[in-house]
Design goal:
three-stranded mixed beta sheet, 12% strand, alpha/beta
Length: 515
Amino acid sequence: MSKRPSINATDPRTGVIAPLPSFDLTPLTLAGRASPPPYPVEALGEILAPAAKALAHYVQVPLGMSAQSVLAAAALAVQGHIDIKKGNIGYTIAVLYCITVALSGERKSSLDGLAIKPIYEFQAERRAEYKSLLADYTAECEAHEIRYQSVIRSYKGTGKKPKPLSQDEQKILSEELAELERNKPKAPDRPHILMEEPTAEGIYKHFIDALPIAGLFSDEGGAFFSGHGMAEESKGRTITMLSQLWDGKPITRTRAGAGESGVLAGRRLSAHLMVQPVIADKVLSDPLMMGQGFLARFLVCSDASLVGTRFLADRDPNESPENDPAVNRFWDLIAELIRTPLPIDEAGELQPATMEISGDAYVAWVDLHDAIEEQLSPQGEFSVVREFAAKAADNASRIAAILAYLETRSSPTVKHIGRAGQIMDYYLKSMILRTQDAAQSSAEHEAYELFSWIKERGGEIDADDFKKLPAAYRSAKKARNLLSLLVSYGHAAVTVTGPNGKPRTWKTTEGRSDV
């Protein structure tokens, strides 16, 4: 910002007072976080919307955060049962990747535990029976080995030299051994379907040893983005594998060792990662994750915080989600779907039923697709989130199919497409805001919050008041740095300095109200 001159300038050649140059005295704009749009919770329909509102009430979390959680849980439960055919455009799958941005202390863990409670219970049941299944498998393996050795001995003879076999005997032996190999006992599937911070290798191994559906769910998503799977040497492999799973493509693993390579098809994985704003800013500005289109597959939710307003005085201490009909209806449906046998072929690959978007519903989906496409132009509203918006119509078809399957077990109608369009409009606008926030300096965000705090308390602060600041800014070094930024941007001025020349008191300046 240009410095305000304190005196008029005099031309040394003529002694005439020269006119002042034109200075822009308007304070520079600080990067404040824009208020997120409201989540269109009613568009989630008769099952998910009441559950989202009830859970938001009981846990005292933002409504959008609750809506995101129940939608992600629904995707996890549905993904193995249906694929989606979009007219003659092609196929997609019922998988959703979600990111929820929420502050520390926003009760992410409490909400997550309730939203996917039926999944945790399903895993607990599978763990309880796994030990017995493993014992049966061990016994079957021993019996199989005894049978195998018995067949070998019957053709080997009792002497030291191997018994010579005729061609017919060799053929019979080969057929018997092949039959034994085909009937070799299969290890029981591992009980878990949820993972929190996997590597690409871990995901591949999970799909070999467990069910062909999985969920990447974490109420501390920062652990995933800073874990081994996202370290510099492995980030590319993890991103590629997760992108392939979102696309419904087979995943591959290539290694030098015998038996360590392979291709796995017919697997499904949905994701819900809950992260703090500072992690979201870092992730949404990561060039590799953005450049490869990985983040463009995610639905991002960032709702206004309720921290500081979650009082208990007027609440009934006896109310609970366990007694709420809307929550129980949601839980019962998720529990039913996750326990319904999956359509799996002999190779262990999913063979989901096809849910077709056709007729008037397809026309409505095409209209939605084209409306989004029009805004991808350089002058369009979605040009700043082009990669994300380019996948929005596909995500809308997935949301519509999941809602339709939950509610009717039938193909999406025009209403389902319309509701999915409302939800995608929210995610598009949220992504625009998050992208803009991520591009701004974190110091500017903090300076904006400090400026607002000072303005609310009279517009002046003294160094002795640093201990009264919000916890994040109480460090004298941190507070002085932010105040220095406010001064340089024209939003504050030093009014008192100490004996050593260091600023002691600052006052906010009158300028633009929107900083």
